[in-house]
Design goal:
Strand content: 15-25%
CATH architecture of the largest domain: 3-Layer(aba) Sandwich
Structural class: alpha/beta
Oligomer: single chain
CATH topology of the largest domain: UDP-N-acetylmuramoyl-L-alanine:D-glutamate ligase
CATH class of the largest domain: Alpha Beta
Number of domains: 2
Helix content: 25-40%
Number of helices: 16
Radius of gyration: 21 Å
Number of strands: 15
């Protein structure tokens, strides 16, 4: 077979390439494996990974074999392709990748990008495993994302935010139009309600059949069909004691449950609560223990994601449902709005009286890390009342954070920022194997997804 992994790495040189043409050609050469199972296609800025994993695990727990495609990966590429929660084996990945390379090198040579190649491998692996259904997470955007070619009978749009503006557009409405373009004629469409009128209009215009499309009104815990949504837009937060706030995992679960009910998969929808208890989503509000010190890892990679995580932590600290972190370990890749990205974290530092912040530089990412000195300077400019340390190498930064958190009892360490930082630290802790990256597991004694 030759060095298929080396060939895959060479494809990184193609970079990000929006468009469907290459993937469509290669799927045809592979005899259309994506048409052998139906898919739920999920797009959005924040929460799409959490929604995907809950959907997939609910399907598996209901007795249906489910494949899930997600990106990027934390530690190894097989994480992108899971069947019933377990990453496929390197041998299975290599066999499918070998077939992708074979058809790519047919005349005329048609080379996929790294991302497109992994999606093609997923379609082959799912087809060969005979899964009942797939859950597919978009990469960037939606309209020109390779995953738009999956055979979807349901499309889901999670929370939107200003992100990747250089590619997706400068307004929420433009980004909404790009992401809502995953909708298909005849397919069910479910979108998280958005209070931006321009974004709402863009989403509604992207959907052909409004009688098969629903807004998920998270502020009312109900769905409203697009063609019946002409009513007051004011939030209603007084039902069943709901105060307008919930952990984002629960938000994702509620969106997943509504989606499954709209698909008339009521037995699967009934498994969503169980799926929450059996889901371990690495690097997303994940609690671990390292050298006797509790760690909370979250890959908040953009301003809205950072705001969501910090809001959740501050609220849970106020409710005494989570301990206050004593040390924060931070590292990120370039941000369009660094001030906005760090501001929620500054508020958390102030409210939680966090004593130490260790700034580091994520490694092995698609984009280079922001220098630790630059991040530290911005934190200082925002007036953080804490001790700042810079440790460029992530594993050394983890060791320093754990040292600072030591004591009786030890203080929790919050690890936050780039997904590549989370991957670096999982590798440093030896949690970069198939078992550690399995997302469907026996329910732990202590459940944090509540």
């Amino acid at each position: 077979m030759g060095d298929v992994r080396g060939w895959l790495e060479e494809l990184r040189g193609i970079g990000m390439r929006p468009g469907l043409e290459v993937t469509a050609v290669l799927l045809a050469r592979l005899e259309m494996p994506h048409f052998r199972f139906p898919s739920i296609h999920v797009a959005g800025s924040n929460g799409k990974g959490s929604c995907c994993v809950i959907l997939a695990n609910a399907l598996s727990l209901s007795g249906r074999s489910c494949g899930m495609f997600s990106s990027p990966h934390l530690c190894f590429v097989e994480e992108r392709i899971r069947i019933d929660g377990v990453p496929i084996t390197p041998a299975s990945f290599d066999a499918a990748l070998g077939r992708v390379r074979e058809v790519a090198l047919m005349e005329p040579v048609t080379l996929p990008s790294y991302y497109e190649a992994t999606f093609l491998v997923a379609m082959l692996a799912f087809s060969e495993a005979g899964i009942d259904r797939a859950v597919i997470e978009t990469g960037l955007g939606g309209r020109l994302d390779a995953t738009r070619l999956c055979h979807a009978d349901c499309c889901v749009l999670t929370e939107l935010a200003l992100e990747h503006t250089e590619v997706l557009g400068n307004t929420l409405a433009e980004i909404a139009a790009e992401k809502a373009a995953i909708s298909r004629p005849g397919a069910i469409f479910v979108a998280r309600w958005n209070y931006d009128e321009g974004a709402r209009k863009a989403i509604e215009e992207a959907v052909v059949n409004h009688s098969r499309a629903w807004w998920w009104r998270y502020d009312r815990a109900m769905g409203i069909r697009f063609d019946m949504a002409n009513e007051s837009h004011r939030p209603v937060l007084d039902f069943e004691g709901f105060d307008g706030w919930s952990p984002y995992q629960k938000e994702a679960a509620r969106l997943a449950k509504m989606t499954l009910d709209m698909m008339h998969l009521h037995d699967v929808a009934d498994m969503v609560e169980s799926a929450m208890h059996h889901t371990v989503w690495p690097g997303r509000m994940q609690w671990l223990e390292h050298e006797g010190v509790p760690l909370l890892l979250d890959a908040a990679h953009n301003p809205s994601g950072m705001e969501k995580v910090c809001e959740q932590l501050r609220t849970q600290m106020e409710k005494d449902s989570h301990p206050t972190p004593g040390v924060i370990l931070l590292g990120c890749t370039p941000q369009t709005d660094m001030v906005g990205f760090l501001h929620p974290l500054v508020e958390l530092i102030v409210d939680g009286e966090v004593e130490y912040v260790v700034v580091t530089e994520p490694q092995k990412g698609r984009r280079p890390a922001v220098p630790a000195a630059e991040v530290a300077a911005e934190l200082e400019a925002q007036g953080v009342p804490t001790k700042l340390e810079q440790v460029a190498e992530p594993s050394a930064a983890l060791a320093r954070a754990v040292e600072l958190a030591g004591g009786v009892p030890p203080q929790p360490v919050l690890v936050i920022g780039s997904i590549y930082l989370v991957g670096n630290l999982l590798e440093a802790m030896g949690l970069d194997d198939q078992e550690s990256m399995t997302v469907l597991r026996p329910a732990p004694e202590k459940q944090y997804w509540t």
